[in-house]
Amino acid sequence: MSATDAQPMVSLRGVDKHFGDLHVLRDIDLDVAAREVVVVVGPSGSGKSTLCRSINRLETIDAGEIRVDGELLPEEGAALARLRAEVGMVFQSFNLFAHRTILDNVSLAPLKVRGAKKADARREAMQLLDRVGIADKANSHPAQLSGGQQQRAAIARALAMHPKVMLFDEPTSALDPEMVGEVLDVMTSLAKEGMTMIVVTHEMGFARRAADRVVFMDRGQIVEQAPPAEFFDSPRSERAQTFLASVL
Ligand code: ADP
Ligand code: MG
């Protein structure tokens, strides 16, 4: 392996975060390799969303270091905007612009932040919509789409920035059950194409199928991590055993 292959795409060292008296991230060390798919699981309130938001610098951390592709997270300004582009984020709520078409939603940020040409941005947006299976919705507005279609549009929008890593924070939690599969399918194909992904989810079937590694968090700590078969079949900690008993 060359030196660049060995460099993690995302690296956290000694990361600490408080909200007032609440210690939500406790000395987190985590490396995610390029092309790796890490699924983060754990009870509600364990710090999973804060972890994701810190990697995108939607939250500041109190101590420690976070690097993306070797670079420390910038504090602000143009460098921060560039980082946000490199770290795609998909939330539980889709956060699409309601008054714009789906095509606009996917092509706006490349135009503004990446300085893409309009025709190029729209052509690529169409390709991305095709890839997530909603090319026929390009000229619709978000409210005209189902939840699953909106979330697929949100994934296309993040991909339009050519991210180095994609963060997903419970992307299917707000969806009706019949729409969960179509979003997980898009995520599974992204994973197969080699996207580096950090996925917070309660979809344990997806974790088993798509994860290279499962990271279990509880009370702000990474309690254990293992390949999915090992984690699900023989969790080591009592906390993970209790958690799995409650969700499986
Ligand atoms: P998870 O995603 O695992 O459910 P979160 O990262 O959302 O956990 O939250 C971790 C803890 O931090 C929870 O106790 C939550 O209530 C608290 N928390 C999250 N965001 C804030 C905030 N902006 N202000 C205060 N407390 C927060
Ligand atoms: Mg959360």
Write the layout of secondary structure elements.
Blueprint lengths: L2 H4 L3 E10 L2 E11 L4 E5 L6 H8 L7 E6 L2 E2 L4 H10 E4 L11 H11 L5 H14 L15 H13 L5 E5 L7 H16 L3 E5 L3 H7 L2 E6 L2 E6 L1 H6 L4 H10 L1
Parallel strand pairs: 3-8, 3-9, 6-7, 7-8
Antiparallel strand pairs: 1-2, 1-4, 4-5, 9-10
The chain binds adenosine-5'-diphosphate and magnesium ion.
Question: Could you please describe the fold and organization of this structure?
Answer:
The protein has 248 residues and is α/β, with parallel strands linked by helices. Helix content is 40%, strand content 24%. The strands form 2 sheets. It has a 6-stranded mixed sheet with strand order 6-7-8-3-9-10, sandwiched between helices. Strands 2-1-4-5 form a 4-stranded antiparallel sheet, with helices on one face. Helix 4 packs across helix 5, helix 5 packs across helix 6 and helix 6 runs parallel beside helix 7. The chain binds adenosine-5'-diphosphate and magnesium ion (MG). Magnesium ion binds next to helix 2.
What kind of oligomer do you see? single chain
H and E string: HEEEHEEHEHHHEHEHEEHH
Shape: globular
Cα-based radius of gyration, to the nearest Å: 18 Å
Determine the structural class based on helices, strands and strand pairing: alpha/beta
Give the terminus-to-terminus CA distance.
Answer: 38 Å
| Strand order across the largest sheet | 6-7-8-3-9-10
Number of strands: 10
Strand content: 15-25%
Ions, cofactors and other bound molecules: adenosine-5'-diphosphate, magnesium ion
Main sheet characteristics: 6 strands, mixed
User: What share of residues is helical?
Assistant: 25-40%
The poorly predicted ranges are none
Helix tally equals 10
Average of the residue pLDDT scores: 94
InterPro entries: AAA+_ATPase (IPR003593), ABC_ATPase_HisP-typ (IPR030679), ABC_transporter-like_ATP-bd (IPR003439), ABC_transporter-like_CS (IPR017871), MetN_ABC_transporter-like (IPR050086), P-loop_NTPase (IPR027417)
GO molecular function: ATP binding
Subcellular location: Cell membrane
Protein name: Amino acid ABC transporter ATP-binding protein
